[in-house]
Specification:
5% of the residues lie in helices and 36% in strands. The chain is built from 4 helices and 29 strands. It is globular, with a radius of gyration of 21 Å.
C-alpha cells in the first residue's frame, strides 16, 4: 500500500480508534443467507456456513449494441447479483478488491453496527488493491435494500457496481414469485464504448444522465411468473442521478413497502397520469396480480421526458393459479422506535450551493475536482480531510435514544435525494406536497421544498448523511451525524 499523506494518516488513525481498519476478520457462519440472480423469480432455499465471497472486479457485458469492456461488478460476466438474507439471521461477506483503485462496500438502508457501514475514513480505511474486508451483521429489518461502493463512488457506481439486497421476512408472506429490478443507466455509445461518466455541468445541476436505461443491465428484459399468481416486484433505483417515475400496466396491484419498510400510510397505485417518484437510493415493493391467461404480459414502465419507456415485462406462464391479492396478509412491521414528537429536538439542515471552491480531500477515494454544493452552507471538505478542517465535524450530535426532528430545507432549484446511514426516519410534513409518513432512509427534496422528518437516534456512531446524486455528494453535499454511545 502506498504511504498516506498526513491527513490520510490522521484519518486512518481515527478509523483504527473506531476499530474498523482494513483487515481480515474471522469468518462468521451464515444461517439462511442466499445469493440469487435477479433473473430468477423465486429465491432458492439453502444455507452456507462461511463468509460469502464478493470479488469486486472488471466485467464484460452487452448493454448497448455491442459488448462493453471495463464494467465493474462482483462477477465477470453480468451485474452484481441479488443477495438474499433472512431477517434476524447473521450474514457475513468477504469483499475482496481486485481493482487497481481503492473501494469499500456500503449496505444501503440496513441498520447495522457503525463499524460495518462501509464508509472510508468515517468507519473504516478503504480496501486497497488485493486486500479484503469482512463485513458481518444481522439484519433486523425485512425489506428491499441494496449495496454499492462508498469509495471511488462515482466511477465504480457509474460503471456498474450496484446490487439489490433482499432481507426476507422471518415467515414467508405467500408470493408465488419475487422479482427484483435494479434500475440504472449507463453512459455508453451505441458501439458499447464509454462516454465520460460525469460532467462539471451535470454536477452543478441535476447530475449527468446516462444514455442507456436498464433493468438488471438489460434494456426491456422479459421475466416469467405463474399465470394467475401473485408477484412481489421490487424496484430499486441505484442510478447515480436519474429519478424514475415508475408505474405498471396490464394488471391490478398494490404498493406494499417503500425503502425497505412496510407502509404505515397507504401509497396510491401509480399510473401513467400519476406515477411514483423513485429517486437515487429509493426502493418500492409492489404486489402484482398476474394475468389469468398464459402468455399475457405485465409492463413495468417509467414516465420519461420524451414519452413513456418500458423498463421490463413479466410474462404469465403455466396453469392458472387463480390467486387474488386479497389473499395476501399485510407485511409485518419492522421494529422501529417511535419518536416522541412532543419532546423532540429540532435541527435545521440547509442544502444548496456553496460560494467556496477548491477540490475536496478524498484521499484514496477519488475527487471530481470541484466543490459546488454544501450543507448548512459549508461544503464537505472531503472523506480524508483532517477532522479539524472547517466543515469536517459532525452536522449534529445526538444522545443515544434522543427523539429528533430534522428540518430539511432545499435552497437550490435542483432535487436532492437525502440519504441517512444507520438510522431510519419518517416524514412529518412538507411545504409543497402531502407525504405519507412511512419509514425511510432517503427523502427526495424537490426544488425549494422543506420537509420535516422524525427519528430516534438509537444507533450510536458517526453516520454519513448526503445527497444520493453522486456528483452532488462528491462535490460538497455530504456530511455526517454523530449519535453518542
Amino acid at each position: 500500500m502506498a504511504s498516506a499523506r498526513p491527513s490520510q494518516r490522521l484519518s486512518r488513525r481515527r478509523a483504527l480508534q473506531l476499530g474498523t481498519a482494513a483487515g481480515v476478520l474471522a469468518p462468521l457462519g451464515l444461517a439462511g443467507a442466499q445469493i440469487t440472480s435477479s433473473s430468477q423469480a423465486k429465491a432458492q432455499t439453502g444455507t452456507t456456513t462461511a463468509a460469502l465471497p464478493l470479488h469486486i472486479q472488471q466485467a464484460r457485458y452487452t448493454i448497448a449494441d455491442a459488448p462493453t469492456e471495463g464494467l465493474i461488478s462482483t462477477r465477470p460476466d453480468g451485474p452484481p447479483p441479488v443477495l438474499r438474507l433472512k431477517q434476524g439471521q447473521p450474514f457475513a461477506a468477504r469483499v475482496t478488491n481486485t481493482l487497481p483503485d481503492y473501494t469499500a462496500m456500503h449496505w444501503h438502508g440496513i441498520r447495522l453496527d457503525n463499524a460495518m457501514d462501509g464508509v472510508p475514513y468515517l468507519t473504516q480505511f478503504p480496501i486497497g488493491p488485493g486486500e479484503s474486508f469482512d463485513y458481518h451483521f444481522t439484519p433486523m429489518d425485512a425489506g428491499t435494500y441494496w449495496y454499492h461502493p462508498h469509495c471511488m463512488t462515482m466511477d465504480q457506481m457509474a460503471m456498474g457496481l450496484t446490487g439489490v439486497l433482499v432481507v426476507e421476512e422471518a415467515e414467508d408472506p405467500g408470493f408465488d414469485a419475487d422479482i427484483a429490478l435494479n434500475l440504472r443507466d449507463f453512459r455508453l455509445r451505441p458501439n458499447g464504448d464509454w462516454l465520460k461518466l460525469w460532467t462539471a455541468r451535470g454536477a452543478a445541476r441535476s447530475g449527468t444522465f446516462g444514455t442507456v436505461i436498464t433493468a438488471n443491465w438489460d434494456s426491456d428484459p422479459v421475466y416469467e411468473a405463474p399465470t394467475g399468481g401473485l408477484v412481489r416486484l421490487r424496484l430499486a433505483a441505484t442510478d447515480t442521478a436519474r429519478i424514475y417515475k415508475p408505474y405498471v400496466t396490464g394488471t391490478n396491484g398494490q404498493v406494499i413497502a417503500a425503502d425497505g419498510h412496510p407502509l404505515r400510510e397507504a401509497i396510491d397505485w401509480p399510473t401513467d397520469h400519476a406515477p411514483a417518484l423513485l429517486s437515487p437510493g429509493q426502493r418500492l415493493d409492489i404486489a402484482l396480480q398476474m394475468p389469468r391467461v398464459e402468455g399475457a404480459y405485465i409492463d413495468v414502465m417509467t414516465a420519461f421526458p420524451g414519452g413513456p419507456r418500458r423498463l421490463a415485462r413479466i410474462r404469465a406462464t403455466g396453469e392458472n393459479l387463480g390467486r387474488d391479492l386479497a389473499e395476501l396478509p399485510a407485511l409485518p412491521a419492522n421494529d422501529v422506535p417511535e419518536p416522541d414528537l412532543a419532546n423532540a429536538r429540532v435541527e435545521d439542515l440547509v442544502f444548496g450551493w456553496t460560494p467556496e471552491g477548491g477540490a475536496p480531500q478524498n484521499g484514496y477515494c477519488g475527487s471530481l475536482g470541484y466543490t459546488f454544493w454544501s450543507i448548512n452552507r459549508k461544503p464537505w471538505p472531503g472523506d480524508a480531510a483532517d477532522p479539524e478542517t472547517p466543515g469536517a465535524g459532525p452536522l449534529a450530535v445526538f444522545n443515544r435514544g434522543e427523539s429528533v426532528i430534522l428540518r430539511l430545507r432545499n435552497e437550490s432549484p435542483n432535487a436532492h435525494p437525502i440519504h441517512l446511514h444507520g438510522l431510519v426516519f419518517r416524514p412529518l410534513r412538507s411545504n409543497k406536497r402531502s407525504l405519507p409518513s412511512n419509514w425511510t432512509d432517503t427523502a427526495l427534496l424537490l426544488k425549494d421544498e422543506v420537509i420535516e422528518v422524525a427519528l430516534v437516534a438509537d444507533n450510536p456512531g458517526d453516520w454519513a448523511f448526503h445527497c444520493h446524486v453522486i456528483e452532488h455528494q462528491k462535490t460538497g453535499l455530504a456530511g455526517y451525524i454523530r449519535v453518542l454511545a
